[in-house]
Specification:
15 helices; binds nicotinamide-adenine-dinucleotide; about 500 residues; alpha/beta; 21 strands; seven-stranded mixed beta sheet; Aldehyde Dehydrogenase, Chain A, domain 1; globular; single chain
């Protein structure tokens, strides 16, 4: 019988109020059932929000560096459990073990970085317009934060949100993706074992309905979301109507520009990692290769030869370089886009089919796929496919490359390969994206750097780095008048 897991609310492990569950399976080995998880309801959300509200009263008053000490211990526990967590993450969502180890490492880095920020949390002091008066700003926590995440970085991304949130004195209700509930549960278990007080982080498992209940709960003060642009739009509507602060990190259609002077061996390594790492299921995946005509044919040949040799399989097996897509729905979506690409007149230069044979028949595998002859107006050049499919677009100048790179509704990551310093600097400014890599692929984020996108990828906030601490705090302006008399700004000093 499959193992049954629970929610974690106010320091207790609990079944869903309805007692209903959903099943989580291994996308690479479909008869391997990871477990049964609570299919939570709005009642469970209500209990979790109430536990978070109660904990907020004490947690928000703890000196920030003491909160930082707990975050440091969480980083230590995650370090001890890195391999175990990576193994279970690969089992549940498919990316190879070396990648899931990186996912945990990002969480560890984020824990130590957030811990260090608890000794900063700067406000400002500035001169007053009036004599004997002192002006400053301080930061205050917001309250209860609803955290809703996707499945593709099931440990790292929740920590990008939860660690700064709790460092700032907020408490959290966390709803992981229904495609990665086990990783979410193991993460919360690490928090508990590191000594995080009860109620500070509460775990509610389930699908979109429970996410929606969390977003619309009147006692949730802010929402941090990572997922698709469609879901983000719905969440933004609710938050807008309820005047809630909301951070949205959504889809991408990330371009890699390759100029005629690029080092093609370096480019090749970058494409393989950018387009087929995490089976192309990263928000930052390289999904458009915009290549100068003088190197186009050579690069495509190099790429197709190398991508054919990628080892596909279960990511916990030795030597596997590319895992499955997440579920049956993803198979339908990606295979559907491959048909759309063919109908639009693009050429399948590599792949284009499900990867089958032997153990692969028991999982959701798709061949690495390369389309050439793609034009900027095709759907495969404009829409997020979220699978191992790369669209190659030929260009004849830098200006044309940038115009195509910017001609999509998304703006998360981007990259340019060139040896021309002037072009590299122009691209930093010209490309409409939250991230630009020079001579590296579109993927890869460091914990202490801001992360996020423009246009329909984001709503102006950033995760990671110093900027995320602005999202999780309210600024309070404080005036101290020690003149001993009533001083009227804009009246006494004109
Ligand atoms: P998704 O939008 O289907 O689901 C994301 C989360 O939202 C899940 O936990 C889901 O249960 C929840 N949800 C669904 N409907 C909801 C609703 N109405 N109200 C509240 N919550 C709801 O996305 P997914 O398939 O899990 O993830 C893939 C998407 O995530 C891709 O578009 C990818 O680009 C994006 N992504 C973005 C980033 C980033 O930082 N920009 C990072 C990772 C993934």
């Amino acid at each position: 019988m499959a193992k049954r897991f629970q929610n974690y609310i106010g320091g207790k492990w609990l079944d869903a109020a309805s007692d209903a569950t959903f099943t989580d399976i291994n996308p690479a080995v479909n008869d391997d059932v990871v477990g049964e998880f609570p299919l939570s309801t709005p009642d469970d959300v209500d209990s979790a929000v109430s536990a978070a509200r109660t904990a907020f009263a004490t947690w928000s008053r703890l000196p920030a560096p003491e909160r930082g000490e707990i975050l440091r211990r969480i980083g230590d526990v995650l370090t001890e459990r890195k391999d175990e967590l990576a193994f279970e993450m690969t089992r549940e969502m498919g990316k190879p073990h070396f990648e899931t180890r990186g996912d945990v490492q990002e969480a560890i880095d984020t824990a130590y970085y957030a811990a260090s920020e608890t000794r900063r949390m700067f406000g400002h002091t500035v001169p007053s317009e009036l004599p004997n008066k002192f002006n400053m700003s301080i930061r205050r926590p917001i309250g209860v934060i609803g955290v809703i995440t996707a499945w593709n970085f099931p440990v790292a991304v929740p920590t990008w949100k939860m660690f700064p949130a709790i460092a700032c004195g907020n408490t959290v209700v966390f709803k992981p993706s229904e495609d990665a509930p086990h990783s979410g549960m193991l993460l919360v278990k690490a928090f508990i074992d590191a000594g995080l007080p009860k109620g500070v982080v509460n775990l509610v498992q389930g699908a979109g309905e429970v996410g929606a209940a969390l977003v619309s709960h009147p006692d949730v003060n802010a929402v941090s979301f990572t997922g698709s642009t469609d879901t983000g739009a719905r969440i933004a509507e609710t938050c807008g109507a309820m005047h809630k602060r909301v951070s949205l990190e959504m889809g991408g259609k990330n371009p890699m520009i390759v100029m005629d002077d690029a080092d093609l061996d370096l480019v090749l390594d970058g494409i393989l990692w950018g387009a087929f790492g995490t089976t192309g299921q990263r928000c930052t995946a390289t999904s458009r290769l915009i290549v100068h005509e003088d190197v186009h044919d050579k690069l495509v040949d190099m790429l197709c030869e190398a991508a054919t040799n990628l080892t596909i399989g279960y990511g916990n097996d030795a030597g596997v370089e590319m895992g499955p897509v997440i579920n049956e729905k993803a198979i339908d979506k990606v295979m559907g886009y491959i048909e759309i690409g063919k109908d639009e007149g693009a050429t399948v230069r590599l792949g284009g089919k499900r990867a089958t044979g032997g153990k692969l028949d028991n999982g959701f595998f798709i061949q690495p796929t390369v389309f050439t002859g793609v034009s900027r107006h095709m759907r495969i050049a404009r829409e997020e496919i979220f699978g191992p499919v790369l669209s190659v677009i030929k260009i004849s100048s830098y200006d044309e490359a940038v115009s195509i790179a910017n001609d999509v509704p998304f703006g998360l990551s981007s990259s340019i390969y060139t040896r021309d310093v002037a072009l590299a600097f122009r691209a930093m400014h010209d490309i409409e994206a939250g991230i630009t890599y020079v001579n590296g692929p579109t993927i890869g984020a460091e914990a202490h750097m801001p992360f996020g996108g423009v246009k329909q990828t984001g709503n102006g906030h950033r995760e990671g780095g110093w900027e995320v601490f602005d999202f999780y705090t309210e600024t309070k302006t404080v005036y101290v008048d020690y003149s001993g008399k009533l001083q009227k700004a804009q009246i006494d000093n004109t």
